[in-house]
Amino acid sequence: MSGTSVAADGSAPPAPSNSPPVVRRKSNTMLIVAVVVVLVIVVGGVGLAYEEHWIGAKTKSAVCGPVTLQGDGAQIATPLVLAWGAAYASQTGNQVNYPGAGSGTGITHFTSASIDFAIADNPLSSTESAALPSPALTLPITGSAITIVYNLGSALPISTHLNLTGAVLADIWNGTITNWDNATIASLNPGVTLPNATITTVDRSGSAGTTYVFTSYLSQESTYWNHTVGQGLSVKFPAGAKQTAQSSNSALLSIVNSTQYTISYSDLTDVINLNSKNIGYAAIENPSGKFIAPTLADTTTAIADKVAALSSLPSASAGSSWYNVSMINAKGVGDYPLATFIYLYVYKATDKGFAPTLVKSQVLVQWLAWVVSSTEGQSYASGANLYYPALPNSVLQNDVTGIGTMTYNGASIPSC
Questions:
Q1: Residues 174 and 288 reside in one and the same domain
Q2: What's the maximum distance between 2 C-alpha atoms anywhere in the chain?
Q3: Of 235, 283, 343, 355, which is least surrounded by CB within 10 A?
C-alpha cells in the first residue's frame, strides 16, 4: 500500500496548511552567563558601597583640606579627643593634633593664638576672657566624673568603695583629719577596719582642670575651704601631715598606685582604664544623702539633672559667661556629685586664630559640628574604654547655634 492516505470518498486529502515551524529549546548557557554577570555587578557595587561607607557605616563627610587642626588642653579629655580624631580622619582625611598638656596650658596657648582650639574643665573667668585677642565660643562638648582615689593596701579590698563626704575631704586636705582611722571616717564606714596610718594627699602641680573641679566641690562643701583656699586651676593647698604634688594625671595615679595610704583625685576614664589592683575609689555622699560611686550612668544623669534644673543655658556664642555654671551636686537620688562639663574654646572669628585660612576655617567648623553631632562625635563618648557622658540635646543644640555664628574675614564660613 502506498504511503499516501485516501479519504473515505476516495479523494485525496487537502494539502496541509502552513504549519508553524518546530521550535527547538535553546541551550541555557547564555541565560546563565547573563545572570552571573548581573550578580558580579551587584556584589561589586555592594562591596564598593561598604568600602566608601555608603552603607553599613557612618556617612563619609564632604572633604575640604587636607588640613591638620591643632588643639591642646585638658588631660581628662585626651582619650576621647584621640578617638574623635581617628574617626574624623578616617572620614575626611583631615587630622586633629591634641597633646593634652593640661587645661591651664591649653588656655595659655589659646590666648596666644598658637592653637586652633583649647579644651578645659573650667569655664573661663572674666579675667581669662578679657585676655583673649578676640571673643571665643564656649562649647560644652562632653563631661566627666572627678574620682576620689586611694591606696589602703590590704586594709580594704578595692571592690569596696569607702564612703566619704565633701566635709571629710575638705578636712583631709586642710589638715584637720590626718589619720585613716579617724573617728569621722570610721563613722561613715561601719564594719570597715581602717588602718592606723597617716594620710598622704597627692595633688596636681601646675594648672589642672581636675584641680578646678575638685576645689570647686570643696568650696561648696566647706565654708572654711571656700574662704581660705577657694577654687582654681591651681591653688595653694594647705600644708597637710604628708603631701606630694605631681605634674600630670598619669604621674599622680602612678604615685597612688605605688604608695600606701595615699589619697588623690583623678577622672573616671583614667582610673578605670588603669585597672590597678591597688587603687580603690570612694563613694561620695550626694545632696540626697546617698553614697554614690562614680559610673558613666550616674555621671550622665547628674549632668542631665543639673541642666534640666537651670532656667536657661548661657549662649555658646562669644561674650556669654559660663563661669557660674556647675555640674556639681545634682539633686537626683542616684546622681554622682562630682560631675563636670568639659568645654571647648574656639575663636568666633577664625581669622583671629592660629594660622588662619578659609579652608582651615571650613574644616574647623565641620569638625566642631561633627563633635557635637549625636550620631557622630557624641556616639563615641562611651565607646571602648571611654566613660564620657553624651550631653543632653539642649546643650548640643546650643553648641550648634554657636558654631553657626563663626566667621572668616567677616563673612559666614561655607560648608565643605
A1: yes
A2: 139
A3: 355
Q: What is the pLDDT of residues 115-148, one digit of tens each?
A: 999 999 999 999 999 999 999 999 999 999 999 9
Q: Once rounded to an integer, what is the mean pLDDT over residues 313-326?
A: 90
Within a domain: 331? no
Model pLDDT, residue 313: 93
Task: Give the pLDDT score at 59.
Answer: 52
Contact of 72 with 114, CB cutoff 8 Å: no
Coil vs helix vs strand at 397:
helix
Cα–Cα distance list, 126 to 51, 111, 217, 394 (Å): 49, 13, 20, 25
Measure Cα distances from 403 to 47, 63, 319, 347 in Å: 36, 18, 14, 10
Q: Are residues 150 and 298 in the same domain?
A: yes
Residues 234 and 293 in one domain: yes
H-helix or E-strand spanning residue 99: none
CATH code: domain of residue 384? 3.40.190.10
Residue pointed to by grid coordinates 560611686:
293
Same-domain pairing of 208 and 347: no
Residue 378's domain comprises 68-143+311-324+339-412
Average pLDDT over the chain reads 88
Total domain count, the chain? 2
- What is the CB neighbour count within 10 angstroms for residue 159? 6
pLDDT tens per residue, range 205-225 = 989 999 999 999 999 999 999
Q: Which cell numbers in the block locate residue 297?
A: 550612668
pTM of the predicted model, to two decimals? 0.84
DSSP codes, 369-396: HHHT-TTTGGGGTTSTT---PPPPHHHH
Query: CA 218, CA 215: separation in Å to the nearest integer?
Result: 5
